[in-house]
Write a structure and sequence with these properties.
Two copies of one chain form a homodimer.
Chain A lengths: L12 E6 L5 E3 L13 E5 L1 H7 L2 H5 L30 E3 L8 E5 L9 H14 L4 E5 L3 H12 L3 E7 L4 H9 L3 E5 L3 H13 L4 E2 L8 H15 L7 E5 L4 H15 L9 E7 L4 H8 L25 H11 L2 E5 L1 H15 L5 H15 L9 E5 L14 E2 L11
Parallel strand pairs in A: 5-13, 6-7, 6-9, 7-8, 10-11, 10-13, 11-12
Antiparallel strand pairs in A: 1-2, 1-3, 4-5
Helix pairs in contact in A: 3-4, 3-7, 4-5, 7-8, 11-12
Chain lengths: 407, 407
């Protein structure tokens, strides 16, 4: 019924290239990082894409992620894996945000987070390239998306998460068929275990940006935004930044769309939002550095952005700077306040990382970094339901007289 | 950007009528139950709808719930309330279900359940009709949807839920701005408190089917299904049935679509699925009764369908019988098994009530009630993330040597 999933449509991948050195790598082969240990980027014959597909033709397709097929790496329709990757809605938050603030609610995707975008693509490519066993370090949501998609196509998964990952995330990963382990450390400690196993040939390493295709899936956030805004991008994007795949992916999407002639050279200012308890990108941005050092003693309630070190640090910093944006840190109290205000006043329950973007927007408004007339998009990267909430109320005794005035 | 929310489009409501006696009631006035204590149904001038809107025109609109505006009761665009009511995807579950089985994944709606459909409409109408204070009994998901939409438009809400409602639901309701109370009883005990307060004029009663508009919102499940199936309905629908608003609403939708000439007279067999620990509709169906008595000692892990008495019982039974379907009960072990299989093998985490529909489908397949060649839709009414899952695994010590073979 959705021909995005069944129609044979070409992919226009030509090759991959090192994001640091530009060195070329062959498409249609299994790759990890480049020779210098940096992410590989997928390149397309965009002239051919433009000849094969127009914005008008695109607008007649169902609006899910797979409508962007010509700008995605999967070659064969049979390798598509899907759990219903809908176009996520943009929800105004006029009271807690402002008249021109939209939340892109990524919690509506399969497994309840934007991680589905990256993992659906990476798993489809793993299937296409014959991978049978995958391991991954995760703060929770990426592991859930990996488990779901990999189980769906019979690929074995082993997932490692920090010891204090919320129970609901760990259980979800296990329910969806992965073998999951807690580790007494942070996500990069989990990543070290995954890396060691990969070196021994035990599994394929699916860490953020260590395989080339998650970024292609995340790219669809930028493609969708462009279409949803009628091919005229918003003025600013606030993006919760851990590994930064989405920010890098959106930036890549905008470039590809401009080369296709589908958008102008106008770009949103990209704001990379981090928690002040784990803000390596903010520190590097402010110091004018090209790379970000590991953040020691990382701590924040926004676990999804508790990432002490990002292998794509220079790509994040480059996109933020090119865009005229900034890297911004916000404290946990401001995050909690933003989540509470948005839920109570606009009826939208954000995840803490989404709350961080609202907190950062408010601070940016206060400092004059953004203007309230500007069209702004905040990314709510996951459903707020996966996260701790305040304790619940006392019980009313239905057998006793009820004091209605006190309810 | 979504003109479904901003365009002025007419509503074609002519009047309301009692579902039992057919007595007419004026539109554009606040109503509860009819004079004989039964639900009111909203009626439209379908000839005028047909003159104003075609299937082709409809297909050019964004696919969300509000594209059905001409078949919905809201008169004024300013009264629309929205948190992004997307068209929910249909996800195949080939391994745990079968080649022709699709899950309509209602967990993607705002607040994570199909309750959003009914409540977005009921709250918009409450806003239109000047209601300022609403109370509701809930097993969790309806209360969350009510709280979110009502808070969004400044309507005060008081919500009562059974004592053992999962913590996550109660907290979600509170976060979204409602005053919420646990009550030592079941949902109809909560309903009695709401009813008493309503009689005293303290609030408007938003219990299932006690106001006329939730059913109009739920109707969109049937409208969407028709559009998604290319106006040729599936052979069978398995629907988790507590209050039954959705089943009644879909049946009403199919009637309206046929009168519009958009579908034929062909109908799916409707299977009302209940938990065997709380199966009043199943008991009444099997006994050939028109009404269902209260089920005593109700118990099931599928709390959303733990509804001992439904005010719309006769409407559910009538639809099921007219359709050639059945009411089916399934035990908790079969529900858990279905949830586990679907998550582990197809990567889709159902809620227990959704699991109940898969369990019922499997049993119906075994008994020959359905054929594996038939096109079947199962309703997953909420995200599986709101529900208890098996405990999570032990911690791996990253400082000790790791036995990779044991992972």
């Amino acid at each position: 019924m959705n021909d995005n999933l069944t129609a044979d449509r070409p992919s226009f991948v030509t090759h991959l290239e090192c994001s640091m050195t530009g060195e070329r790598y062959d498409a249609d082969m299994l790759h990890g990082l480049s020779r210098v240990g940096r992410p590989l980027l997928v390149r397309y014959d965009l002239d051919a894409v433009g000849a094969a597909l127009s914005r008008d033709a695109l607008s007649t397709r169902p609006t899910d992620l797979w409508r962007w097929r010509e700008l995605l790496p999967v070659r064969h329709t049979r390798d598509i894996v899907s759990l219903g990757e809908i176009e996520t809605p943009m929800v105004p938050i006029p009271v807690s945000g402002g008249a021109n603030v939209l939340v892109k609610d990524e919690g509506r995707l399969p497994t309840g987070s934007f991680k589905a975008r990256g993992l659906v693509m990476a798993v489809a490519m793993a299937k296409e390239l014959g991978v049978t066993r995958i391991a991954m370090p995760t703060n929770g949501n990426a592991g859930a998306a990996l488990a779901a998609y990999a189980s769906r196509c019979g690929i074995e998964t082993i997932v490692f998460c920090p010891e204090d990952t919320p129970e609901i995330n760990v259980r979800e990963i296990a329910m969806q068929g992965a073998r999951v382990w807690r580790v007494n450390g942070l996500i990069d400690d989990c990543g070290a275990i995954v890396g060691k196993g990969a070196t021994e040939g035990r599994w394929f390493d699916f860490s953020t940006l260590k395989e080339p295709y998650r970024i292609e899936g995340k790219k669809t956030m930028g493609l969708e935004l462009a279409a949803q805004f009628g091919w005229d991008l918003p003025d600013a994007i606030f993006y919760p930044t851990g590994g930064g795949t989405g920010l890098i992916g959106m930036w890549k999407a905008f470039d590809e769309l401009e080369k296709l002639g589908w958008i102008s050279s106008k770009r949103p200012r990209m704001y990379a939002v981090q928690a002040s308890g784990c803000a390596p990108i903010v520190r590097a941005f402010e110091a004018g550095e090209e790379h970000a050092e590991r953040w020691e003693d990382a701590h924040t309630i926004a676990m999804g952005i508790r990432v002490p070190r990002a292998v794509g640090d220079f790509l994040i910093l480059r996109a933020v700077r090119e865009s005229g944006g900034k890297a911004l840190g916000v404290g946990d109290p401001a995050i909690l306040k933003a989540v509470e205000d948005c839920a109570r006043r606009d009826g939208l329950l954000l995840c803490p990382e989404g709350g961080a973007t609202l907190a950062a927007y408010r601070e940016a408004l206060r400092t004059g970094e953004v203007d309230e007339d500007e069209r702004v998009v905040l990314f709510n990267c996951a459903t707020g339901l996966k996260y701790p909430m305040p304790p619940s109320p006392q019980t009313l005794d239905r057998h006793a007289p009820i004091d209605f005035d006190a309810l």
